[in-house]
Amino acid sequence: MMSYELIGITVLWIFLYGYLIVASIDFGAGFFAFYAKATKKDHIINQLISRYLSPVWEVTNVFFVFFFVGLVGFFPDMAYYFGQSLLIPGSIAIVLIAIRGSFYAFESYGSKDNLVYMFFYGATGLLIPASLSTALTISEGGFIEETETGVHLLSGELLTSPYSWSVVFLAIVSVLYISSMFLTYYADRAGDQPALDLVRKYALFWSSPTIIASLTTFIALSQQNPEHYQRAIDLWWVFGISVAFFMVAVFLVYQGKNYGWAFIAVMFQFLVAFFGYGASHLPYLLNPYVTLSSGVTNETMAIALIVVFIAGLLLLIPSLVLLMRMFLFDADYVKGKK
Amino acid sequence: MFELDSATLSRMLTSLTLLFHAIFATIGVGVPVMVSIAEFIGIKKKDPHYTLLARRWTRGYTITVAVGVVTGTAIGLQLSLLWPSFMQLAGNIIALPLFMETFAFFFEAIFLGAYLYTWDRFKNPIYHWLLSIPVVIGGTMSAFFITTVNAFMNTPQGFKLEDGNVTSINPLQAMFNPATPTKVFHVISSSYLTAAAVLAAIAAFFILMKKGSQYHKKALKLTVIATFIFAIMTAIAGDLSAKFLAEHQPEKLAAGEWHFETEDKADLIVFGTLNEDNEVENAIRIPNALSFLAHGDFNAEVTGLEETPEDERPPLWIHYMFDLMVSIGFFTLGISLLYIVFWKVKKWNEHHPLLLWGIAAGGPLSMLAIEFGWVFAEVGRQPWILRGFMTVFEGSTTSPHVDWMFILFVALYAVLAVGCIVVLRKMFKNNPAELELEHRYPQVAATKEDD
């Protein structure tokens, strides 16, 4: 029997993973849409991108809200430590998310083809993962201190740390990689050859920085938090499986067929690596202040949250399946016939 | 930068975010109800005017909902960023409704996307209408859950506090606290009312400006009748809320009503001013009305502010917030009733300009009443963040950078407000309803690329 706190963190981690995938697709697509427009290739792919994004952008946002509300619910101590220390990066992330979400709606429902709106939409898409990854970085320890006057972020340490920069770099290139891999699949489904040619090039281009950034982050982690690094090394086979999925995905795209399988391989690549990272992070949630068992809410609330979570899934999964069948797997819709 | 402490600045920033969010949240809860009703009437009566109403309202709604979503995300995060000690304590007790709120929001988000992109997809239009139901349910349920959290802050229960540690937690008792029923009822009914009043104001304004078409007249009739019904609901909810306050939060009612001494047969004070000795001047006094408002009995005893220790009293200016909210409520009720009377009496003209101007004013005024009401409710529980347990000063962040964040968010909301107005104007200005009707309905089959 899993303990409540382990169920709690697993649930949260699944949602964060869900956000990682859907938000990467969304953030990257926004950037590619802007990039295509700026390089006058927008007629090739922007139709495709907006057909996918329009019905789902709000859902993407909910994954994120879900994660942080769940985190505060299961682990109220995290609200205290992260809240005290992350005022500035957190506020910047809020502003970026707000600009992005609303400008997307302004552009796609309101004044179509407004380059300024598209610029903000595309640029914020790359800055959001960078600012959000700060939270993961400081969870490794060494970036905040607790004194008499409260908890403080050591911004100097954060800005000069090789680890924090490699995480930022990894976040950005992964976004572009995941997104272009998805768009390759989507373009193929739509039977849109020119779009496919373009996004396939993006996908192959962004694959190598992604794997390089993963390695450098690993190396930087060994400097930043040797214990965590050691626990990760103990799980070396998990990361090995992730690399294998990466090679499958890139091989399939290079071959130019089975794009659906290629994207599934990408999802597994990140799933395995993300859970390997998460498992090796434990028992600390926020090193050294909060551990899995010290930060957890009381048992009554944990049970209530898990019950609600299961009930919620029974409502959400059929709804999500319906949404995907309408807009993702409905060939006529994807091809623009509906 | 400002010579203010973090707690005061955190209060300012939270108020700013909430007041801005409240506009879009209210529209977000109320408008889907109106859209769903209009689409249903359109299908039943086979009247494309109503279907077009639903379509056009929905299109404007997407813009407001986007701003609502992002400002809602902002307040969700700001709660932990600005009030970390409060969230650490309260997270143990109210995580359940917060979590459920995100489920409701998720549900709404999924079906809003589906609703927006399937207008012409089904042979039987009723299937499309059915997609509006989960949007209405999701919006209303998220208002319900988040209001229970606010209610909890007003009348906390369902836990024990021993040396700063919470024990004996009962999540359902915390959620269904004494403030929950009246607060939820009042929040939902006033959101429906405000959405209806805003849409009525738009229709009235168009008729005033352009001698509106059939389309606008139908829109006006539908929205004003809805306004009237929701205004009655809101008045009942308001009355129940006052009775709740008298029993559970007498200091809020006393400060709101400038009722200083505990007495029976208490007068209701409407507007007025206070002199240096806290004596009321220039006010309209309605004899015994406060006793009736508080307890349903003209002779009942009403607790005065003197019973509350001085350092636990809310500021007295909330009196104006209360009076403005109630006055606007009665104005909307009256003007919508007047319209219905004029419409029923055949000799009278329900499109008389004065009446239309009244309806047009009702929209923005109702939105103001929402803001006044929230200010009254929130400032009325000062100095507490968790009434009886934690003051706002104990709950706030110690970070010295809140001032810069305040400026950052002022700029953000200014950008969002301007963007929202510009886009909405553009959306409807170049595409008047009459044109869209001509274009869309003579040849239903050929209109697939819109939306």
Automatic annotation (TrEMBL), chain A:
Pfam family, one: Cyt_bd_oxida_II
Record keyword Transmembrane present: yes
TM segment ranges: 6-35, 56-75, 81-103, 115-138, 163-183, 203-223, 235-254, 261-280, 300-328
Protein's cellular compartments: Cell membrane
InterPro entries the UniProt entry points to: Cyt-d_oxidase_su2 (IPR003317)
Membrane topology reported for the UniProt record: Multi-pass membrane protein
Record keywords, A-Z: Cell membrane, Membrane, Transmembrane, Transmembrane helix
Domain of life assignment: Bacteria
Entry's Gene Ontology cellular component terms: plasma membrane
Family under the similarity heading: Belongs to the cytochrome ubiquinol oxidase subunit 2 family.
Name the UniProt record assigns to this protein: Cytochrome D ubiquinol oxidase subunit II
Taxonomic classification: Bacteria, Bacillati, Bacillota, Bacilli, Bacillales
UniProtKB/TrEMBL annotation, chain B:
Pfam family, one: Cyt_bd_oxida_I
Localization in the cell: Cell membrane
Regions crossing the membrane: 20-41, 61-81, 93-117, 129-153, 184-207, 219-238, 317-342, 354-377, 404-424
GO molecular function, one term: heme binding
Alphabetic keyword roster: Cell membrane, Electron transport, Heme, Iron, Membrane, Metal-binding, Transmembrane, Transmembrane helix, Transport
Record GO biological process: aerobic electron transport chain
Membrane topology: Multi-pass membrane protein
CC terms in the record's Gene Ontology section: cytochrome complex; plasma membrane
Family under the similarity heading: Belongs to the cytochrome ubiquinol oxidase subunit 1 family.
Protein name, as recorded: Cytochrome ubiquinol oxidase subunit I
UniProt lineage: Bacteria, Bacillati, Bacillota, Bacilli, Bacillales
